[in-house]
């Protein structure tokens, strides 16, 4: 066998299809015909709409996540100071699901338009090429890559799934927080009204009272201050905690309360205050 | 007298492409001759380089695409200092649109290439793209290292290194004994 260099030359001379200038001129003429019959390009191209929609969604989601992170940062200096009511804080985020859905709709529409335009252009091209040129192109050509299309579609699907999952989790957390707030309101209202039925309605049927001492003395002040306290989730297993600073019999007090949910009822409410004995209400299941 | 093709005042002006102004009559024969010379000079190393880098099939496609692009932008290309290298880049860009076939280098019939080891296509595929380009152009077709460096866009020393390693690998795979 000859050396590798000679073999390479022989192989490539035999395998490589040579191209001369006449081939180039003919190809240029075909391209010219294709351009003449190609659908006119729109001013706002679907690809641009797709890119703008995608970027919009990314910026929007990033902004929302950043804002959420900033809003959830713990107070570093004065942990016992009053915070804004939870109802006002949660109400400011009602706009973002609509904006996310809008961004996804824009991105999806742009993507569909992009695919439709490509298909229409291909049909025009196939009609434009005359039979002789078709014969010349009948030789099998490598398939054009669809990878960018699939990647774009996959990114959109993953993004939509991630946003949907996040939205569901966020909505569940918010609904749990609202439910916990409602239970606290009902519980305090029941105490203030001296209505045992209203207090009992907050708890599951199997709840039992373990200890209750001096709580009634602070109920009125607690109810006034809890409404201006911050209620925030501290765990994902259904336990919520809020901190409050209030005035009890002329003394400034701080405390922490936790609520553990069982379905849509409170299974455990526990509070510890600096001047009030502990108040604990346990479910039989949670306190064994 | 009404125009047979009414044109909206808002319509953009028609795009003008090479040779289109007054049909083929306006095509500059001198430009065609000049481009023909350019193709004769550039096409061999361009097609061999792209075929070595991306395989025989895709290499031919992207060579044609690159040369068509050169003719369409001939006013730019003719003034370039290294048009071959630029067209190699164009070919690389065009090659990204193609899926890689399973066989970059198909086996050819023995009667067409009696002096080629049947293992050569497989051995070529085992080299890196740059090694293939350098070894094919330098050891296969005898191009100077400087020309290959300009075409591929790497240094002359890198070209030499790729070519030497590629050739050594080929000799090893083909079990070619090199006399010192």
In short:
The complex is a heterodimer of chains A (288) and B (180). With 288 residues, chain A is of the alpha+beta class.
Topology overview:
The complex is a heterodimer of chains A (288) and B (180).
Chain A: H1 4-15, H2 21-37, H3 46-71, H4 86-91, H5 96-128, H6 131-136, H7 147-192, H8 196-202, E1 207-211, H9 215-226, E2 230-233, E3 239-248, E4 251-262, E5 265-273, E6 279-283
Helix pairs in contact in A: 3-5, 5-7, 7-8, 7-9
Chain B: E1 21-24, H1 29-54, H2 56-72, H3 74-77, H4 83-95, H5 120-125, H6 129-140, H7 145-152, H8 156-174
Description:
The complex is a heterodimer of chains A (288) and B (180). Chain A is of the alpha+beta class. In chain A, 57% of the residues lie in helices and 16% in strands. Chain A contains nine helices and six strands. Chain A has a six-stranded antiparallel beta sheet, with helices on one face. With 180 residues, chain B is mainly alpha-helical. In chain B, helix 1 (29-54) packs antiparallel against helix 2 (56-72), helix 1 (29-54) crosses helix 4 (83-95) and helix 7 crosses helix 8 (156-174). Residues 1-17 of chain B have low confidence and may be disordered. Classes of the chains: A alpha+beta (288), B mainly alpha (180). At the A-B interface, helix 1 and helix 2 of A face helix 1, helix 2, helix 5, helix 6 and helix 8 of B.
